[in-house]
Write the structure tokens for this entry.
Amino acid sequence: MVLVVLENQRGKIHPFSLEAVAAGQRFANELNCDLSILCLGEKVDELKSQAKKFQSEQTYFSKK
């Protein structure tokens, strides 16, 4: 499994995290394994809808 942690920028995904997701997707394809995404922090509910657009096997959310 490849795990990407999204940087939470007040309820929005930080642009660097978008690059991390793209790299995670490439690694997961090359390694023939699943991509999982972890979202933490404040306004995590807002991240849920944004993270749905990523093709990941699992998405984990945790509020503060």
Residues 2-62 form one domain. Strands lie at 2-6, 8-9, 12-13, 35-40, 58-62. The chain has one domain: 2-62.
